[in-house]
Amino acid sequence: MEMSFKGITIASMAFAMSLTLFVANAADPNPLQDFCVGVPDPHAAVGDTNNLLRSRAVMVNATLFPALNTLGVAMARIDYEAGGVNPPHLHPRASEMLVVLEGTLYAGFVTSNLQAGGNRLYSKVLNKGDIFVFPQGLIHFQLNIGSTPAVANAAFGSQTPGLVTVANAVFGSTPPILEDVLTKGFQVDEKVIGALRAQFRPSDQPDFHSYI
Ligand SMILES: *[C@@H]1O[C@H](CO)[C@@H](O)[C@H](O)[C@H]1NC(C)=O
């Protein structure tokens, strides 16, 4: 199954989008708002990648951009340092289309185990101009495998796609999931679970044992 298409450039996407806008405008010439204030400093819009993952995703959904309300779309910009990762996560309410603006990414998603050959990984190395699609609700990721920073834009088919980051949800929930669930669920001992919890425990959450 070929999930990415080389040679589709930003320019051709922009052309396709302008066609779409033209059609939409023909049906409804009214702007959705009187004006839209841009970001004063464009550099401030770039994600700060100074963190352990060395990546930053900035989601523009209906909360941050109320003009999206009722329109069923949202976007994100993702910045990755060399080696930076957008860790395994999913969007419960939207499929996602990713386009690489700069750099080289290894991207993939895993099918649900209800499908034939379940838990199957579909992955691809993506270069500038390549696109990839992540189906709604499936775990996916991107890793910058190049030696320079990478940038991607993502488009979502929902104004509020939602975000579940697997490690943070499982090992960093508030309150924590009972340890037995995790040791048995992941078939490892408490030390391993403890180490993972230490990585993902929210900073305002003292210690697992104070919850039971
Ligand atoms: C919109 O995205 C922001 C940032 O990821 C998030 O905090 C907020 O909860 C999202 N809004 C909705 C309605 O999902």
Automatic annotation (TrEMBL):
The record lists oxalate as bound by: 86, 91, 96
Keyword check for Signal, yes or no: yes
Q: Where does Mn(2+) bind?
A: 89, 91, 96, 140
Q: Which InterPro entries match?
A: Cupin_1, Germin, Germin_Mn-BS, RmlC-like_jellyroll, RmlC_Cupin_sf
Q: Which Pfam families match?
A: Cupin_1
CDD domains (alphabetical): cupin_OxOx
At the top level, the lineage of the source is: Eukaryota
All residue ranges annotated as the Cupin type-1 domain in the record = 50-194
Family of the protein in this entry: Belongs to the germin family.
What protein does this entry describe? Germin-like protein
